[in-house]
Amino acid sequence: MKINFINKSFFAIMIFSVISCEDKMDEYIPYDQEIFENFYKSPADFEQAKNAMYSAFRGNGYFSGGGSGDGLISTPDIMSDNLVLNTEGRQSGRVNAEFTFNSNNVPNGMYGTAYRIISRANSIIDRINVLPDGDFKNNILGQALAVRAICHFDVARAYAKIPTQSANANQSLGIAYVKTFNPQQLPTRLATVEETYNEIINDLELASQIIAVENTVDATQAGTNVFLDRVSVKALLSRVYLYNGNYALAAQRAQEAIDLGATLGTRAQFPGIWNDSNNSDILFKIAITVQDDVQIGVDYFQFLSGAFFSEYVCDFDFYNLYLNNDVRKSAYFTVAQSNGSEYIHITKYYRDLTNQRFLDGKYIRTSEVYLNLAEAKARLGNDDTGALAALNALRAQRYTGFVSGNETGSALLNQILLQRRLELAFEGDRFFTLKRLGLPLQRSGKGHLSDGTGNISVPQTLSADDHRWQWPIDQTTLNINPNIQQNPNYSAN
User: Fold this and answer.
1) Strands (E), 350-487
2) Spatial distance between the Cα atoms of 26 and 48, rounded to a whole number of angstroms
3) What is the pLDDT of residues 317-337, one digit of tens each?
4) Domains assigned to the chain
5) Distance CA 303, CA 414 (A)
6) Burial of 221 (0-12, 13-18, 19+ CB in 10 A)
């Protein structure tokens, strides 16, 4: 398990690792003798530190799950009603599927990785005034603030309550919000979730005002979206405000992202999103190359001797929610046999290049922005027309021959939530959607084989007030920092 606070020697070695992008910028410069205070002298230094900040998203708990059900795109789906554990597989991540985790066997390594990224962001923020005032300084600062915010947000939604989860959620225990670079500090958790979200929103709103409208790797790679920019920050604000229950601002920021250029991928483009043949719909992603040796999707299946062998398969009832004229059905699934049995394999992250699934990690897409816009407008209760228009924009690009159902009221909201589940499946959304809506987990009772028979998930239900909706903080972190309070009802064994 990775820890959340790093010492200076680790920082000196790792902070300057350079991000691998599609221009093959994949060098490692060993600044093991570099002193932090003497590094930030030039714009090039800040560029290098910025790249190292982004590169850390390839770490454990984010886009590297290590094949253990431990990644950002897998853990929240494993812990939901989208998947069924294949007991004939390696059974990796079984503690997640069965909710048997504790502080010595946590569901996900994101906690430590998130604070490592936060530390890198803070090192930039703390030294930003070395740069002269101007667009370059503002853009670097904006990116660092946005990264700091989204990492805290990811920790908050996993390890604390979500504001809309329950009546008392906003006044429940928050998370440690770290705003300065000091590897020796031992921060405490904020008193409330409300304070935590205020900090996240403050960072993102400031970032949205100063960051560049578009950030690209270079002039030849426009649209690769491997750096945050104003469009993606507005999109992220729509997500955070939705979680925070501020539906007016969720809708406003979503619309601003769309107005700035967030564009839905078409039905024809959609399959290419998942094999990296196009960047349509993607607002922010983490670039991953062969050299990184991070294989997104390995938590779901392996491909051996010409056949898929799945760790987790799609739930039978959920699979059947995808209509045959839905482009997502073929883009996300392959129904095939292995070892004499047929399964619904999750092949959303499969690219048939000698079985090398070195795909970029998609962090936020325009599709989610439209869903955020539709849900926020629906929940405001005064703009079903606008909510339906946002929903229809998405549905028209997913279904052949789409005809609007012209839903209103509760039927409209239910359809929005259905499309959210269908669209964002296996991208780490489902567990958090159930959590923010204060809903219990109710699995279907269907088994792991393609016809719904076989071994079923355990447990089948998890009540909305169960303490396991808040993940345990790992024991290593607790040992290093006695100021960090464990979530209720967890022990080491």
Assistant:
1) 361-365, 441-442, 461-462
2) 12
3) 999 999 999 999 999 999 999
4) 8-288+362-480 (1.25.40.390)
5) 36
6) middle
